[in-house]
UniProtKB/TrEMBL annotation:
Record GO biological process: negative regulation of DNA-templated transcription
Lineage of the species this protein comes from: Bacteria, Bacillati, Actinomycetota, Actinomycetes, Mycobacteriales
Entry superkingdom: Bacteria
Organism name: Tsukamurella sputi
Any one GO molecular-function label of the UniProt entry: DNA-binding transcription factor activity
Signal peptide: none
Cited Pfam families: GntR, UTRA
Name of the protein: GntR family transcriptional regulator
Length: 263
């Protein structure tokens, strides 16, 4: 399958996803191209094909764009699950978001919002077990699945200055292992639900106070040293959590160090 064919398939999936949530139009061509890592010409040809198929209609002008023809405007009530395909976030494995998306058949994408050195203060210093003011890398990224926003990830990494200049559009875990020989082999995570604040809503393109899954995580290397502290905000309408449990008689298989009871 050519890159152009893959783009068409991805935009068809995106249209289905948006229609299932009552969306009315595709993102702008420029944003789709950036999220998929293809040229605007490739996106334009794919949208033209969807228009010929009757999936979208083009509207020109200030409020123009590629509007969905079969948008259902479905209202979700009660305990019904939102329609559309969602990422299954497996809590039993140590795996980066790009790998999870690829394994589940999504086209993944990343936009780096911020990558800079900052002093480790407060919770960051405690989670990474470093002295206050220790220099760490602060990495803020928007993740995409099939050209639609999925999550906002904010990671702090102890390697600090060594990582400046790395390609942060790829997997952080793969970069740590392949370039620095520091694999993340275990994680502790705390999961909450929150509403999107003004900045998060703007970066994810969701309404203010839209429901998000907040995953607070510490990642440990092979020597059991905390290397990564992250707060990931996943769109609740695009994510479901998967966890495996065992009986109380079984040998415990997960860590509990990050379970701060007084937080």
């Amino acid at each position: 399958m050519t890159l152009a064919d893959e783009t068409v398939v991805t935009l068809r999936r995106l249209a289905d996803e948006l229609e299932g949530r009552g969306g009315t139009k595709l993102p702008p061509e420029r944003e789709i191209a950036e999220r998929l890592g293809v040229s605007r010409a490739t996106v334009r040809r794919a949208i033209d094909l969807l228009a010929r198929e009757g999936r979208i209609r083009r509207v020109v002008g200030r409020t123009g764009g590629a509007y969905l023809v079969r948008s259902s405007g479905v209202e979700i009530t009660g305990f019904e699950l939102p329609s559309g395909r969602r990422l299954a976030r497996d809590l039993n494995t140590v795996r980066g978001v790009p790998e999870m998306l690829t394994l589940q058949g999504f086209v993944e994408g990343t936009r780096v919002v911020e990558a800079r050195l900052v002093p480790a203060n407060g919770m960051v210093a405690r989670a990474l077990e470093v002295d206050a003011e220790t220099e760490v890398l602060s990495l803020l990224r928007v993740r995409f699945a099939d050209a639609d926003t999925l999550s906002l990830d904010h990671a702090y990494v102890t390697l600090g200055r060594k990582m400046i200049g790395c390609d942060f559009s790829s997997s952080l875990y793969a970069t740590l292992q392949d370039r620095f020989g520091v694999p993340i082999v275990a994680t502790d995570e705390i999961i909450d639900t929150v509403g999107a604040n003004e900045r998060t809503a703007r970066l994810l393109g969701v309404p203010l106070e839209a429901p998000l899954l907040r995953l607070e995580r510490v990642g440990y290397d092979a020597r059991d040293r905390p290397t990564e502290y992250s707060i990931d905000l996943f769109r609740a309408d695009r994510t479901r959590l998967r966890v495996r449990t065992t009986s109380s008689d079984a040998e415990p298989s997960s860590r509990v160090r990050f379970g701060y009871a007084d937080r």
